Each structure stands twice: as C-alpha cells, then as structure tokens.
Fold this sequence. Notes:
The structure is a single chain. The protein has helices at about 10-40, 45-55, 75-80, 110-120, 120-130, 145-160, 165-170, 185-190, 200-205, 210-225, 250-255, and strands at about 85-90, 90, 100-105, 135-140, 230-235, 240-245. It is an alpha+beta fold. The protein has a single domain (about 10-255), classed as Glutaredoxin, CATH 3.40.30. Strand 1 (about 85-90) and strand 2 (about 90) form a beta hairpin. The longest helix is centred in the N-terminal third of the chain and has 32 residues, at about 10-40. The radius of gyration is 20 Å and the shape is globular. The chain starts with 8 loop residues before the first helix and ends with a helix.
Amino acid sequence: MPTVAQPTRNERREAARRERLAREAAAVRRTRLRRLGGVLAAAAAVVAVLVAISAAGSGSGSATNASPSSPVAGARETSALLSGVPQHGLTLGDPNAPIRVVEFADLQCPFCRDYALNTMPTLVNRYVRTGKVRMEFRSLAFIGADSVSAARVAQAAAQQDKLWNFVDLAYRNQGKEDSGWASDATLRRLVAAVPGLDADRAFAARDGAAVTDALKAAGTLATRSGVQSTPTFLVGRGSRLKAVDAAGLPAAITAAVGS
C-alpha cells in the first residue's frame, strides 16, 4: 500500500487556525441569524410588529447633539455619489440595465454600513453609471426599534425616488444599535439634507399602508430567497439570481457583466 504523507507541524497549525477562525465566524453568524430569523419567520407577524414599534417610537428621545440647522455629515459625499444616477422607487440606475443586484440590509447593521461606504461607491461608478447594472434596496428591520424607524422613512423616500440618498446618509450617520439614534429629529435632519425630498410628505407616508406592505414584501422576498444575514445580495440576469455576501459581490457582478 502506498504511504500516506502526514501533515507537517506548520500544516497542522494552519489547519487548527482555520478551524478556530471558522468556529468564531460561525458563532457570530449564528447570533445574527437568530435575530434575523425572528423577524422573517412569519411575514404577517412582521407587519404587526413594525407598526406597533413605529407607533411607540414616534417622537422618542433624541439621539443626536447636533442642532437642526447644523450640516449633516456626509451630505456632500452622498450627493456626489448619486448625482445624475436615475432612481425609480427601490431601484438605482437604468431600470433596463441587464444585470440586477438586489440588496437586503438593515439600516442599523454595521456590516451594511461598511459595504455602503467602502464598496458600493466603486460599484456605482463602474457599473451603475455605465448602464450595466441596476441596484434594488430591500429594507429589513430585525435589529430593533431604530431599524424600523429608519426603514419606514427610507421606504417613504422611495415614493419620491430618493431612497438611495436617504439610505446612504443614514449609514453615514448611523449610531450604536438601538441607542435611539434614529429619532424623529435625526431622521428629519437626514431627509432635509436630500435635495428634492419633501420631508412633510415623507413623514406623512412613513406609517401608511403602502410602506407597511413594501416592508412586508421585503421580508417575504428575503425568506423566499433564503437570506440569512445582512447584507445579502442577489446578483444575475432576469430571474436567474445568485445569493452572495458583500465580500463576494464585486466578483459576482464582474462575472455577470462579463468584463
């Protein structure tokens, strides 16, 4: 019988290190999956929870020390990133672009923020502006009350084709999870910093049936698509979409575009 080569000491150490890192990553993932699963388990229950939390948190304590008239952090960068890029409801870019990217995210999620600030700008400039890719944003609100408050205003902004501006500003001004950062005062400041977005109209719409139905639809689509963490992306042509995480998104888009 042929002799089976035994792993070297360095190989054993490297294997043990990979196993340890995999266990740690799995533990973090399980924690976030339990939280996400609690929201996506039943779409009908999600809607009732969203309405109740939003109503209870409306007008709750301020999470910012900034005065209403002070500049909003990141407003200039957000405007520069999205200026000239068409928006239609949830969609950023040419609605007829051949490649579709669907993003599932929570506006309180720090990993979603990292993607939005560090990876998305390159993708927008390289693929969305050139008409190759269109992006869709689906709000999930599983972390807590601030998630719900921000998601509702984002969805209301979509009615005025300004969702992506609001979402980018929300990430740039994101506070600690469930610290109360998404107060009415803060959300109004963010809305006011988006050119062309009517704040009164957005706040009048945020608790309406259309917003509730849209958030329910996002949760239903996430469940049907097997979304288990945020951010998660579906990438592809037409209805042939592949789920990837933020790290795998650039390569997935490049492969789908073919260049």
